[in-house]
Amino acid sequence: MENITYTSNDERTFSMLCHLSALSGLIIPFGHIIGPLVVWLLKKEEFPEVDRQGKAALNFQLSLTIYSIIAGILVIFLVGFVLLGAIFLLGLILTIIASVKSSNGERFEYPLSINLIK
Question: What confidence category does residue 7 fall into, taking pLDDT thresholds of 50, 70 and 90?
């Protein structure tokens, strides 16, 4: 992880929104993917850091979805219940950390994220 300074307040704001919009998944089905996707598609051409952070947010949310599907299958063996809780908490905590770091002008890289969108 490297510390950077974004060129504008707008870039920091939209970069933060790429991460923070994933929390809409708590209310809207698939909002954890749709939120970051919308912000990224609208601002990726205008701000290079929004492009990078939007891809990172989408990759992480898609990774969490894949992990959740696997954990859902493992519910049959009862271990899936624990994994689903851990995945939820990990997603919530790391999304908030990424939002705060982006708001402060720092780049954040999610751990355990599959690089699906390049």
Answer: low
